[in-house]
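Before going further, learn to read the protein records used in this course. Taken together, the tokens spell out the fold as the letters spell out the chain. A record is reproduced here so that you can trace the correspondence yourselves:

***
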Amino acid sequence: MSDQSQLDEVIEAVLTGGLTISSALLLFGLVLARPGLLTAGIVLLLLTPVARVVVVTIDLVRRRDWVFAATSAWILGVLLFSLFVAWGLSPKHP
């Protein structure tokens, strides 16, 4: 099996797992009227693409593709910074 197909399988598993768990949290949050589960489901859904970038960055570093690894790390930094800013600007709940 090639490195690319292995990477594709890992990415597929990360995205599928994130979507499945997020969907379950959202469904249970709706059925049980639990805002905490709804919030967790939404946050996990938002973090799923970030997890994909982490997987790709790790693979690029493993293959010593430094230019694309740096680019991917930059993108990861921008995503994490935007999440940090969004978290800081969100309304605080008691």
